[in-house]
Amino acid sequence: MKDVRQLRLVIRDILEETRRSKKGRKQRIMRKNTTEVNKGRYNPALDKHRQMLAQDLYRNMTGHQKGFKTKKISQLREGEEIVWKKTFKNGMILSVFTSVRVEPDSSQKSGKTFRFAPKSQGRLIFRLEYTIPDRYAKVAGVPPDEQKYFSFSSQSVYRKGTFPQIIARINGSIEGLEAFGDRIQKAAAYFSKIAKGEKDFTIEKVQADMSADSGLTMTLDKKKGL
Are 159 and 173 in contact, with CB atoms under 8 Å apart? Predict the structure, then answer.
């Protein structure tokens, strides 16, 4: 026991001596910080991280994902958000509000580029919506004063991690909501039952099913257009 204690003391002394010794270490050279972004003012032209992530997402939506459409870059106005939309065969619409906005960029041939907005100025969310046709609602017995437009929006997508991790997170939620939409072959009948409050067709159940598929909390919007 005594030998073990002495061995520990010897090891500790060696480690402390190693920490104090400067032999073999490179001398630190203190240099003035000349990085513009650390001077208290945000310069979007220097923010390459949000620009590259936005470009990765754009390539993902045009390559990996199928059926989504958005405006051409040339048609987008400065400050406008890029929104991707997909319409299912049953009439449901899935929208991806990217929080990616168009900004001026003199280095680009088009004179503009696009970047993710800072988290305090934009959220990446999904919205799944459907409107029961008036003619169908009348035949199905939906009361005239009942809600015919349904819109469910997600919580904001977590934008931390590497680019592949963030894109994979987005793809997972998109594919989950696509699976939900594809399962509902007759959306008019499905949402008519919800509007009438039939058993096993409640808003809470729809929200729970969407949330389980997407991995995000989906909630009913109070009115059309958030």
Answer: no
